[in-house]
Design goal:
By secondary structure, the protein is of the alpha/beta class. The protein has a single domain, classed as Purple Acid Phosphatase, chain A, domain 2. It contains 6 helices and 12 strands. Strands 1, 2, 3, 10, 11 and 12 form a 6-stranded mixed beta sheet that branches. It has a 6-stranded mixed beta sheet with strand order 4-5-6-7-9-8, with helices on one face. The radius of gyration is 17 Å and the shape is globular. The protein binds fe (ii) ion (2 copies). The site of one fe (ii) ion has 6 residues, from loops.
């Protein structure tokens, strides 16, 4: 089966990019399932009902989140009602939602998706390394096809997780930095890996935000409120080909499309 994974969708420009490319990619590449990181989809922070509906119409099958998961309160209701939005498994305390889900792809294969968050330069979280193994064990009773979105800041933590998960999951992709890394590969144990999928959102921006405000923060120290950037978009993701029988990744294709 083929799974398209799309990195942090930022606001209107990002959602428009989904409309422009997900359907076409599904057709061109015979995609069976689409995972989208939706933590920034509603004006840069969180996910509202209308952005959820839009992205579903654009072809997303499910959503992973990150540190901005609670940016819009209504996401709690969406999680409960729809069952296809997950938040990082290893968040602290008794937060709503769940950290994994098992769904059925277009070709009938069951796919498990786990969302994790890093501990370095990030919101407080429990160890993702401790949390993930038990979750994999549970999902493996149903299917060997398992995808992990590791939402983390630093490359070292993400690479360590990739090697930690090698042979245990079909693929691990990173999200959060909004910058695509050029290291898509299949690890020795058959796990597809990329450190970060990159952002789907406005090109002419600093991580999706108005660049002038961010430059000002660095130059003069002013703390003006972030504004979402507009203009042309970019689409960042990866297509993973996975063997349905043993869950191993056989091919990985990095996608970077400019409007
Ligand atoms: Fe993000
Ligand atoms: Fe994030």
């Amino acid at each position: 089966m083929k799974v398209l994974c799309v990195g942090d969708v930022v606001s209107r420009v990002g959602r428009d990019m989904l409309f422009k490319y997900v359907d076409e990619l599904k057709y061109q590449k015979d995609i069976d399932f689409v995972i989208v990181n939706g933590e920034n989809s509603s004006h840069g922070r969180g996910m509202t009902r209308s952005t959820y509906n839009e992205m579903k119409r654009a072809g997303a099958d499910m959503f992973t989140m990150g540190n901005h998961v609670w940016g819009a309160k209504e996401v709690v209701h969406i999680m409960e009602k729809e069952g296809d939005v997950i938040r990082p498994l290893n968040m602290q305390g008794t937060q709503p939602g769940r950290g994994s889900v098992i769904m059925t792809a277009k070709n009938g294969t069951k796919i498990g998706i786990i969302n994790l968050i890093g501990q370095v330069n990030m919101v407080p979280a429990n160890s993702p390394f401790d949390a993930v193994l038990a979750e994999i064990k549970k999902i493996r009773e149903v299917t060997p096809v398992i995808f992990v979105d590791f939402h983390a800041e630093v490359t070292s933590e993400k690479m360590a997780m990739g090697y930690f998960l090698d042979g245990k999951v079909s693929a691990m992709f990173g999200t959060h930095t909004h910058i695509q890394t050029a290291d898509a590969k299949i690890l020795d144990g058959g796990t597809g890996y990329i450190t970060d999928l990159g952002m789907t959102g406005p090109i002419d921006s600093v991580l999706g935000m108005n660049k002038n405000i961010i430059i000002d923060r660095f130059v003069s120290g002013t703390q003006h409120k972030f504004e979402i950037a507009t203009g042309k978009g970019q689409f960042c993701g990866c297509v993973f080909t996975v063997n349905d029988d043993d869950g191993k990744c056989t091919d990985i294709e990095r996608l970077y499309i400019e409007e």
